[in-house]
Amino acid sequence: MLDLNRRTLLTAAAALSIARTDTSRADPAQHYDVIVVGGGTAGIPCALFAAQGGARVLLIEKSPALGGTLFWSTGQIAGAGTVFQQRLGITDSPDAHFDDCMRINENTADPALTRLTVDHAGETINWLAKHGFEVITGHPVTGIGHDHFTARRYQQGVKSGMSILNAFLPSLEAAIARQQISLLTETAVQGLIQENSGKVVGVTATGLSGTQDFRGTHVVLASGGCAANPRLFEDLHGVPLYAKTAYPTSQGDGLILGMSAGGAIVGGEKYASLPGLVPDAWQYPAQMHAWAPLHPMVRKPWEILVNAHGERFVREDHPSVHQIERGIYRQPGHRHWAIFDAEMLAKSEPIIPDWSRDRLANEYQTHSMFSRAMTLEELAFRAGINASSLRRNIDDYNRRQKTGLADGFGRTHRPLAIEKAPFYAIAMQGWTLVSFAGLSVNINFQVLDPQREAISNLYAIGEVIGAGATSGAAYTNGMLVTPAITFGRLLGSALGKRS
Ligand SMILES: Cc1cc2nc3c(=O)[nH]c(=O)nc-3n(C[C@H](O)[C@H](O)[C@H](O)COP(=O)(O)OP(=O)(O)OC[C@H]3O[C@@H](n4cnc5c(N)ncnc54)[C@H](O)[C@@H]3O)c2cc1C
């Protein structure tokens, strides 16, 4: 999925082909048709399509590098009717895509925005393909890390998110060369210019040339989510930001800008928890030390999962990883422990991919999230969970496993009882890569106030509208990158036509 330790903003900047601030062409005296705030997954296609439609576009990016989260994102995307499906003879439809998305997120995504995504996702992927985007051999697939689709429509570029960025950049470079797009990098938009009527007429931005106002007919917020801003994240979700895994520029600037103009924030209640992050410490936001996907389609579980009370809480081999995630979400602090014994360690694939059994067995010597003990009571003490309840739950699990009685949670994969010392516990944290809260928008991507009235000339696309909008209270395959690019294309085209 990702190797956060090796990926830094620095390497992102080094990988950039377009990185220079072009102040000569970004002229505060000029009136732009479209100002795009944020040159990432959603902002770049928006700027491109607006320019192709004839608009004078100003693209403002706060970091030295264009690309945003694409530098880190796996970039998995989904769509029906793609060239990649045709290649493999797969028939599919936007209706089936829509049904799958709403099934996976249990109808918690915005149906209108989901519909808009799936109806245009195939075109998005074909457009990327036309610009050199190529997928991993064997893709599209039905799924990878989340609940699967019923059809093969999910793909990842050979260079993950970078495959998408690489497809964007030549067209962007050409549009800049033709002076259709003016680009400012290392420049942060810090305010919206709003008339008394509420109409947005430009932005205030601070960069290498100081603080300047830029006027524009349409202002598009495409500045990403807020999952790298612990305070804002917690304010908007009511859940702490447990781990630092979002791209560092995801500070929620666009949410604050949108709110300052009267925009409503929605979707914080849709927060969904990914499973299995082993934090470096019990402090928030933590760094990821290791990750156990806990995905029964990837690896059948041998261990049991318990909460801080030492209680099991979910069917560990539930065919839907979403249901396991929901189970974790209901536990105190979204914390969960995997418990196993010496025989499970010896016979199963390590629960942490790419780790050897030896490392798994010995990590407790150097890392406080790993515990090992000769009795279950001592293990519970070391791990900081309720000992008597852990003993009771394991006795019950073992008794049912040995006698063939149905498991209390309906689990069917029960290869071994937990009874051979030493015993092991791995402490894990529920976590997220993205923010679910975002600016309320309609299907024209206009930012809405709390009365659902559109704020004139202000638009939002990408994660600034919240993962909850298109992914719902779940991790629905590709339902962030796919809508980000798709909405960028749609909005850019619409604004280009109006210029
Ligand atoms: C590790 C990881 C893996 C993921 N994998 C997937 C996946 O496989 N599939 C999927 O659908 N989703 C995935 N996601 C989520 C998805 O990648 C993001 O939701 C999406 O890329 C966000 O796009 P965006 O355009 O909204 O933001 P970004 O791509 O982050 O772009 C926002 C840009 O705005 C700039 N900016 C911010 N503030 C300002 C400001 N004030 N002024 C000017 N510029 C500003 C930023 O610097 C940035 O360049 C993943 C996320 C992560 C972190």
Question: What does the model show?
Answer:
The chain has 499 residues and is an alpha+beta fold. It has two domains: 1-270 and 433-499, FAD/NAD(P)-binding domain (3-Layer(bba) Sandwich), CATH 3.50.50; 274-431, Succinate dehydrogenase/fumarate reductase flavoprotein, catalytic domain (Flavocytochrome C3, Chain A, domain 1, Alpha-Beta Complex). The protein has 15 helices and 18 strands. The protein has helices at 9-14, 43-52, 83-87, 94-104, 111-130, 161-177, 230-237, 253-260, 321-329, 342-347, 357-362, 376-383, 387-403, 467-471, 481-498, and strands at residues 31-37, 57-60, 77-78, 154-155, 181-184, 188-194, 200-207, 210-221, 265-266, 274-279, 288-291, 304-306, 335-341, 370-373, 423-431, 438-439, 446-448, 454-460. The strands form four sheets. Strands 1, 2, 5, 6, 7, 8, 17 and 18 form an eight-stranded mixed β-sheet that branches. Strands 10, 11, 12, 13, 14 and 15 form a six-stranded antiparallel β-sheet that branches. A two-stranded antiparallel sheet has the order 3-4. Helix 2 links the parallel strand 1 and strand 2 (57-60). Helix 2 runs parallel beside helix 6, helix 4 packs across helix 5 and helix 5 crosses helix 15 (481-498). The longest helix has 20 residues, at 111-130. The protein is elongated and about 75 Å long. The structure holds flavin-adenine dinucleotide.
